[in-house]
Amino acid sequence: MKDFGALMKQAQAMQSKLQEAQARMAETEVQGQAGNGLVRLTLKGTGELKSIAIDESVLEPGEGELVGDLILAAHADAKAKLDAAQAEHMKAAAGPLAGMNLPGLKF
Fold first, then answer.
1. Main-chain dihedrals φ then ψ at residue 23, nearest 5 degrees
2. What is the reported pLDDT for 38?
3. How far apart are CA 27 and CA 32, in angstroms?
4. What is the pLDDT of residue 99?
5. Bridge partners (DSSP) listed for residue 32
6. CB 35, CB 73: distance < 8 Å
7. pLDDT tens digits, one per residue of 36-46
8. Are the C-beta atoms of residues 61 and 44 closer than 8 Å to each other?
9. pTM
10. Could you tell me the sign of the dihedral formed by the alpha carbons of 14, 15, 21, 25, in that order?
11. 32 Cβ partners below 8 Å, 6+ apart?
C-alpha cells in the first residue's frame, strides 16, 4: 500500500502543476499577423480575441474581401502560436509523463 500512497502524492503534485500551467496560459497573449503586418491581432490564452489592428491602406472601397481574408489568416497565425504555447506549458507541467498519450491529458 506504500506504493499507492506515493502514486497518489505524485498525482496530486502533477494536478497542482497542471493547474499552475493553466493559470499561466490564461495570462498568455499571442499576436498573429497577415499581409506583411497589414492586419495584426492579439489572442488571449483563453482564445478570446483581444484586439485587431488594420492598416488603413487596405481600407479602400472594394477591399472588403481582402480585409476579411487577412483577418482570417492573422487569426490562424495567432491560433497556431497559442496552441504551441499551450503545448509547451502542459509539457512543462507534465514532466516525465509528457508524450505518454494518457487518456484525458492533452500535451
1. -65, -40
2. 95
3. 17
4. 58
5. 41
6. yes
7. 999 999 999 88
8. no
9. 0.71
10. positive
11. 40, 41, 42, 43, 74, 75, 76, 77, 78, 79, 80, 81
- Find residue 49's DSSP bridge partners: 43
For residue range 7-53, what is the model confidence (pLDDT) as tens digits? 778 778 878 888 888 888 888 999 999 999 999 999 998 889 999 99
Overall residue count recorded for the chain in this entry: 107
* CATH, range 2-94: 3.30.1310.10
Q: Within 10 A of 30 (CB to CB), how many other CB atoms are there?
A: 20
Grid cell listed for 47: 482564445
Rounded to whole angstroms, how far apart are CA atoms 35 and 74? 8
| Residue 49, C-alpha cell as written in the block | 480575441
Copy the grid coordinates of residue 28. Answer: 498568455
45: cell is 490564452
Query: Are 89 and 25 contacting, i.e. CB atoms less than 8 angstroms apart?
Result: yes
